[in-house]
Amino acid sequence: MKEISEEHAFRIRRNLKDAGCGLPVVTQYLDLEQRQCRREQYRLLSCQKSMLLQKLHRIQYKIDCLDHLVYTMQQEDEEQRRRESCKKQRL
């Protein structure tokens, strides 16, 4: 088993926390670090990344929905301005 310095463990904890990982993931990662299970560390990080990407895609979909609504409103407003302009020209 590999001994991890306190400074190294602190940096790992901070990095994983900044990446949105909870305490169970941090603890598991540090355990894997001590046991030098690099393949499992990669797997764990890959799972976390996948989870973040899924969240990102759900949020992106919501943003796209709002953008579509704004676009539709702008199209309706433009059509309304054209109609009003035509009415004024006929008068």
Feature tags:
single chain; mainly alpha; 91 residues
Describe this structure in words.
There is one protein chain. This protein is mainly α and 91 residues long. It has one domain (6-90). It is 86% helix and 0% strand. The mean pLDDT is 95.
List the helices and strands and how they pair.
Blueprint: H1 6-18, H2 23-34, H3 38-90
Helix pairs in contact: 1-2, 2-3
Short overview:
The protein has helices spanning 6-18, 23-34, 38-90. The protein is an all-alpha fold and 91 residues long.
Rg (CA only): 26 Å
Helix content: over 70%
Proportion of residues in β-strands: under 5%
Total beta-strand segments:
0
Order of helices and strands: HHH
Overall number of structural domains:
1
Number of helices: 3
Largest sheet composition: none
**What is the straight-line distance between the termini?**
89 Å
Regions with little confidence, pLDDT below 50 for 5+ residues:
none
Overall mean pLDDT stands at: 95
Structural class of the helices, strands and pairings? mainly alpha
General form: rod-shaped
